[in-house]
Amino acid sequence: MPMKTYSCLELSITPPVARITLTRPEVRNAFDDRLIAELWDAIEEVRKTHEDAPDGGPRALVLTGAGETFCAGADMNWMRRSIAYSRDENEADAMRMAAMLRSLDELPIPTIARVNGASLGGGMGLLACCDIAVAVDTAQFGFTETRLGIAPAVISAFVIPKIGASAARRYFLTAEIFDASAAKAMGLVHEVVPAGGLDAAVDRFVTALRGNGPRAVSTAKLLIREALVRSRKDTIENAVRAIAALRASPEGQEGLGAFLEKRPPSWKQ
C-alpha cells in the first residue's frame, strides 16, 4: 500500500509486518521535534492500518535505526534550542514526546525493537515501549540525562515498569553506560545476538507471533498494561471479562476447535 513520505524515518507496511526505521544516522538517529512528530504519525498510521484490516493487516511492528545506532537520545541542536523555551513551551515539548511514546506503548499489535547499536537517553524510552527487544552483542545502553543536569523524566513512566525500581535507582542516578548482557539481565532486552544474527532473531519472533490469534495477542498486551495500574480486584475482574469475551469470540472458537480437532487454526493457514 502507498506509504507517507517522511524526512526522518522510513515506514513500510507489508503484512504481516510493519517496519519503522529511524533515518538520521548522521546524528545517530537522535530525537528532535520533527522526528518525534513523524514517529507519532507513523505509529498512528500503523495503528490505523491494523484497525482497518485486523485480519489482513500488520501482525507486528519492527522498530530499528539506520546505520550503527538504534537511537542516541536527544539531538544537541534541539536541546540547544530548548534552552530558550519558556516553561510552558518546555512542558508542551515534553508532552509531545510522552504522547508519541504512549502511542507506541499502547499499539495493539506486538512491537519488536531491533537494537542494531547504541540506545541512550530518550532512545531508552523507545526501547522500553516495545514488547520484545533483540540487541546486537556490541550495543551499549545508558540513561545519560543526569550528566546534562536533567533527568530521564518523560521516559520513566515506561522504563520503570520494564526494568523495575532497583535497576532504575542505580542506572538513572549514575548515568553509567552498560552493555547488552546487563540490559538483558534487567529485562530491558530479551535476546542478545551477534550482528549477523539480528534479522534472523527478529524473524523468529515474528514467526512465533504469527502463530497466535491476533485478537488474543492484542488482549494479552492490554491485560499486561492494565495489571500495572489497576487494583488486584479490578485486575482479576478485568481478566475474567477478557477471557470470557475471547472464548466466545470467533477467533477463540476457531482456536479451541482447531486444537481439539488437531488442525492448524485459520490464522496459520
Query: Helix count?
Result: 10
Helix content: 40-55%
Largest sheet: 6 strands, mixed
The number of E-state strands comes to 10
Work out the radius of gyration.
Answer: 19 Å
Average pLDDT, rounded to a whole number, is: 91
- Based on the structure, what is the oligomeric state of the protein chains? single chain
Strand residue percentage: 15-25%
Strand order of the largest sheet: 1-2-3-5-7-10
Inertia-based shape: globular
How would you spell out the order of helices and strands?
A: EEHEEHHEEHEEHEHEHHHH
Q: What is the straight-line distance between the termini?
A: 23 Å
Poorly predicted residue ranges: none
Going by helix content, strand content and strand pairing, the class is alpha/beta
Describe the structure.
This protein has 269 residues and is of the alpha/beta class. It has 10 helices and 10 strands. It has helices at 33-52, 76-82, 87-105, 123-129, 153-174, 180-185, 198-210, 214-227, 232-248, 250-260; strands at residues 9-14, 17-22, 60-65, 69-71, 111-115, 118-120, 132-136, 140-142, 178-179, 191-193. The strands form 2 sheets. A 6-stranded mixed beta sheet has the order 1-2-3-5-7-10, sandwiched between helices. It has a 4-stranded mixed beta sheet with strand order 4-6-8-9. Strand 2, helix 1 (33-52) and strand 3 (60-65) form a beta-alpha-beta unit. Helix 4 (123-129) packs across helix 5 (153-174) and helix 8 (214-227) packs antiparallel against helix 9 (232-248). The protein is globular. It starts with 8 loop residues before the first strand and ends in a 9-residue tail after the last helix.
